[in-house]
Structures are given as C-alpha cells and as structure tokens.
Amino acid sequence: MLLFEKMVKRKDKKSKKKILKLILIFLFIILLFLVYFYYSLDNKDNVNQQKLSLDKQKVLEGGVEAFNVQYINSVLAGLGSNKLHKSYVGYGNPLIEFEIDSEIWNSEIEKGKLITKKGNIDNEDLRIVISREEVIAAILSDDIKVFMRDSVINERTKIEQVADKVELGSKGYLSFYNEIS
C-alpha cells in the first residue's frame, strides 16, 4: 500500500507541475496578445490622426476655392450673432464689415436674420480682418468662439471697434465682443 501511495503522490506532483506549466504558458500567450493589440490599436490611432490631418488640409484647400457667404454666416452664428439685435435707442441694425483676403464683405442682422453680401457698408459697428483659411479653420474647429479668441490673441485675426461703446451695447455686442477679444 505504501508503494502505491508514493506513486500517486509522485504522479500528483508531476501532474501539478504540468498543469502549472500549462497555465503559465497560457498566461504568457494571453499577455503577448494583449501587448500586440495595444500597440496595433495605438498605431491605428496614429494612422487615423495622420489621415485626419490630411483630410482637414484638403477640406481647407477646397473651402478656400469654394468660399461664399455661408462660411461667413457660419462663423458669425458660432460667435453668437443670434444675440445681436436692432438698437432700442435708434442706432439701427448690427452691421459688421469683413476684410477677407483683400475682399470686402458685410453682414447685417435684420430681425434676427443674417444678411451677408460682398461689398462695403457704411457705418459698420465692427471691422474684422481675417483670411479665408482662418474662416474655414474656425468652422472646422470644435468651438468657434475659442478658436476665434485664439486667432485674435495670436494676431491672425484683427477686430476693430468702429462704433462707440454705447451703440455697440445697445445692439447686444458686449457679450459678442468680449467672448472673442
């Protein structure tokens, strides 16, 4: 009987060692897969970022060629032009003049509606000097207000206050102007 018990114990020890080795090999294989997937996903993110930046550059180039009124209206809407209104004390509608790559555009907010067209305007409240690329980049940004504030701070965009502060305040420009300058 003693001999049999010794054999069983030996087999038990050998089988335990084999099971332990198999578990370790299995864990090692799982670890290898996890490392592989981690680095392959990280690499895909880098490839996607590169592709995204290339796509963004193509969009910028295409937007410059197809530039129109809607681009200006999108930036104004993103800046909060819906807060602008006709003056309650007789100054009239909000008027903004844009100089975009040496072209003059103007926008008027009449009864809450943006009316933008090419050409000069008399008695503008603000004059904004900006490039087409900057307008399109603002539209593509996550937050137009933050982008435009950064653009003004870094002097890629210039905003000139033409009307006096009383007139600007009566048309609702105070929050509009403060958010981007």
Q: Would you kindly provide a written description of the structure presented here, covering whatever features stand out?
A:
It is a single chain. The protein is of the alpha+beta class and about 180 residues long. The protein has helices spanning about 1-65, 70-80, 130-140, 145-155, 165-170, 175-180, and strands at about 95-100, 105-110, 115-120, 125-130, 160. Strands 3-2-1-4-5 form a five-stranded mixed sheet. Helix 2 (about 70-80) packs across helix 3. It is elongated.
What is the SS-derived class? alpha+beta
Main sheet summary? 5 strands, mixed
Can you give the helix content as a percent range?
55-70%
- Cα-atom Rg, whole angstroms? 32 Å
| Main CATH class of the largest domain | Alpha Beta
CATH hierarchy: architecture of the largest domain: 2-Layer Sandwich
Number of strands: 5
**Number of folding domains?**
2
> What's the number of helices?
6
Question: How much of the residues is beta strand, in percent?
Answer: 15-25%
The CATH topology of the largest domain corresponds to: Nonspecific Lipid-transfer Protein, Chain A
State the fourth-level CATH superfamily of the largest domain.
Answer: SCP2 sterol-binding domain
N- and C-termini, Cα separation: 95 Å
Could you name the ranges where pLDDT drops below 50 across 5 or more consecutive residues? 47-52
**Major sheet: order of its strands?**
3-2-1-4-5
So what's the oligomer here? single chain
Report mean pLDDT, rounded to a whole number.
82
Order of helices and strands: HHEEEEHHEHH
The shape is elongated
